[in-house]
Write a structure and sequence with these properties.
Length: 277
């Protein structure tokens, strides 16, 4: 039960990031690069303070750290920039399909035990998500932005796979955020130097970075060793459902019967996958 509750809390934090991102870009007048940079910096600051306060020490080096920083950068900016041109539903479908493939591939390579019920749950949840998010009309596709979303999915999948080996979840997350925020600041200066920073947009980015990303990702790294790659992959299929529900509550978006049925399919699929035999 503890693992289930922590997983649900983490998925809610991930979904909140999507809602906060959309609010900042639409209502807060921020560019994706500016939002991502403030998000990473605020997460790095609160995590660094926590690591220093608990005297855990700082470990910046190592191949795993470099890979973690690269994966985090790919996810944060691939995700944000891709949504400039992609339909939200199609973007989410591409992202989480790629995350599934990446993490299931990692589970197979590492010889993780995956019972038939996990494959069944993953298939059911992914089918519900595809049915909800599949575009109903003609869609103009920007292959550049599709590619960016694919890179974001690979980045998040790899970042999650690396979390299974983190000896200290809080320290690992903090160091990843510090490294990624430095890269992001350089990226902002050279790519988006004229970006506007509204008070509302910055506030949303800080909440997203410090609370939902920084602390949320630390909790994610904490539970990943126990959760495993394949179950973690399936659990994340609930994120778009939670995000859409958050959009209905905070952004006034409509809730349709299609969403209700799809949500039931995804939740049942996730529960089947997470259930211990």
């Amino acid at each position: 039960m503890r693992l289930f509750l922590f997983t649900a809390l983490t998925m809610a934090a991930f979904a909140a990031n999507s809602v906060l991102n959309r609010m900042a870009l639409v209502q807060g007048d921020m560019t994706p690069v500016a939002f991502g940079t403030v998000r990473l910096m605020s997460g790095a600051m609160i995590l660094t303070v926590l690591v220093a306060w608990q005297k855990r020490g700082f470990a910046f080096g190592g191949v795993t750290r470099i890979l973690g920083v690269i994966a985090l950068i790919l996810y944060i900016f691939g995700f944000s920039i891709a949504y400039e041109a992609l339909d939200p539903g199609m973007g989410a479908l591409i992202l989480f399909a790629v995350v599934q493939i990446t993490m299931f591939g990692g589970a197979v390579i590492s010889h993780e035990v995956m019972p038939k019920q996990r494959w069944l749950g993953a298939g059911l949840a992914l089918a519900g998500l595809a049915w909800l998010l599949w575009p109903t009309g003609a869609v103009e596709t920007s292959w550049l932005h599709v590619g960016l979303m694919v890179l974001a999915g690979i980045g998040w999948g790899v970042y999650s796979l690396l979390g299974r080996k983190a000896a200290d979840a809080l320290q690992a997350t903090a160091m990843n955020f510090v490294g990624a925020s430095i890269v992001a600041a350089v990226f902002l200066v050279f790519v988006d130097v004229g970006a506007g920073l509204s008070l509302q947009g910055v506030a949303l980015a800080v909440v997203s970075g410090a609370l939902m990303s920084g602390l949320g990702y630390a909790l994610w790294y904490q539970i990943l060793p126990e959760l495993g790659a394949s179950r973690a992959a399936v659990a994340q299929l609930s994120v778009p459902i939670i995000a859409l529900a958050g959009g209905a509550v905070f952004l006034g978006e409509a809730v349709t019967m299609r969403f209700v049925v799809a949500a039931i399919l995804v939740i049942v699929g996730v529960c089947v996958s997470l259930w211990r035999q």
